[in-house]
Amino acid sequence: MGILPQLIVESILLGSFYAFMSLGFSLTWGVLNILNLAYGSYIVIGSYLAYVLHLWLGLDPLLSLPVSFGVGLLFGVAIQRFLFQRLMGFEPFMVLILTFGLDILLSHTLNLFFRADIRSIDVPYAEGSWFIGNLILSEVKLMVFFLALTLTLFLYLFLKFSWTGRAIRAVALDREGAQLVGIEPVKVFLVASGIGTGIAFSSGNLYGLLQGFTPFDGGFLTVKAFLVSIIGGLGRVESALVGGIFLGFIEVFVSFYAGESWKLFASLLVMIVVLLFKPRGFFGGKYYGEV
């Protein structure tokens, strides 16, 4: 019983990162109908970008978040414009293959420049902790927690109240109907892809703070984003938050009571159960159109 509060706190802290990390994946899947298998590699690129900026310029990964988001935004727009857009009218399977190939290309390109050595971003507050009663709260995890929640809230408000956010929701809900009121889906796809990739790159900063990384981490990060989207549902920003924290609870508790090697098995098992009995997830709506 004594360890239970600590496990709950760790689950929430980890889950908040998973939620923010998965927002871009869920957004591009929900709006563009693209299951992007290269999404995890986008996150890893963000980690290496933060690593280089910290190594060369001494820039803290938290301060370089806007840079990562901006670079990711441009990268996402370019990928959508020159790759995905060309296959939008084809079978979804074609885009799936394209993202699979893109994932391999990106991870091996990173390996050419950085090798497969585990890299980490060393910041002064990495080892700091707060003690509240019997709880031990890592400063880094707390920072990631509050930042992830803040950025998630910002995306929610953007989608709900801005004109661009409403256009994204309109296209996701009814593409033909959106066209009738003057919204151009092609431009919305560019914006959604840019925002989704920007989120992936900036979450790479947070990932680099939480643990070491290699060029080949993208695969399992994509799996986690997929799990969060399935468990929480594609429909809303808050569904990613619920899915992320739920995944955090599964991983932390299973790792503690059954061992680290069982957490992926347990997560996949839960995903199958959710797909069987609640295929749209806990809070899944009709993509982002029902935000």
UniProtKB/TrEMBL annotation:
Subcellular location: Cell membrane
Topology term for the membrane: Multi-pass membrane protein
Entry-linked CDD domains: TM_PBP1_LivH_like
Organism (species): Hydrogenivirga caldilitoris
Annotated Pfam families: BPD_transp_2 (PF02653)
Keywords: Amino-acid transport, Cell membrane, Membrane, Transmembrane, Transmembrane helix, Transport
This protein's name: Amino acid/amide ABC transporter membrane protein 1 (HAAT family)
Sequence intervals crossing the membrane: 12-32, 39-57, 63-83, 95-114, 140-159, 188-210, 264-283
